[in-house]
Design goal:
72% of the residues lie in helices and 2% in strands. By secondary structure, the chain is an all-alpha fold.
């Protein structure tokens, strides 16, 4: 299950070929991957915001109280996992449109492995340096998009041209999810999990 991580980061085309060659039964065994990997950014976020804190424009270090960071970390974990499941569902749902061979677990696994750079980059949230974390998150998301475009044709067994359109549709669904999460974040921060800051 975790044997694909380094390959996905270093040689994604070869790694997608390995995943696409797996029988359906083996693909289903990869489903715990996002459940475990989504813990990395959430735990790192909790540690970073409660233990080390961050500075904005050279001011004093700002931290979250452990009590307010726990619900935020849990919501962060659920948002990451929700992204993988929602986009994976969309991959499966759109498969008939693109004449692809799919089932729900395959869509989720494809999305989970494409999200590997985001999970790994989340480790750096342990020590929050905002400008660096923003650059790293941008690079990780960009690479994840590239992985979607590289992974859809072999895993979904579609030609390159159709795979490009399929991956573009998946990317659009990911953007929809991001907008929904941003709106939900604003609402939840106000009414459910408001952060409490401490020096």
């Amino acid at each position: 299950m975790f044997g694909h991580v380094f390959g996905m980061l270093l040689d994604p085309q070869a790694e997608w070929a390995k995943i696409s060659a797996l029988p359906d039964k083996e693909i289903k065994k990869l489903l715990p991957y996002p459940i475990v990997m989504a813990l990395i950014p959430a735990i790192a976020f909790y540690i970073g915001t409660t233990e080390y804190g961050w500075r904005i424009l050279g001011e004093d270090v700002t931290r979250l109280t452990p009590g307010s960071a726990i619900p935020l970390a849990v919501l962060f974990y659920l948002a990451l996992l929700g992204a993988v499941v929602f986009i994976g569902y969309m991959v499966d749902w759109m498969s008939t449109t693109f004449n692809a061979r799919s089932f729900l677990a395959k869509g989720i696994v494809l999305t989970a492995y494409a999200t590997t750079p985001v999970f790994v980059a989340g480790l750096f949230a342990v020590y929050p340096v905002w400008w660096f974390d923003i650059l790293l998150a941008t690079a990780a998301c960009s690479y994840a998009i590239r992985l979607v475009y590289l992974g859809v044709p072999p895993v979904m067994k579609v030609p390159e041209e159709r795979g490009f359109l399929y991956a573009s549709a998946v990317f659009m669904m990911a953007l929809v999810y991001v907008v929904v999460v941003l709106v939900a974040t604003a609402i939840l921060w106000e009414y459910v999990a408001m952060p409490v800051f401490t020096d």
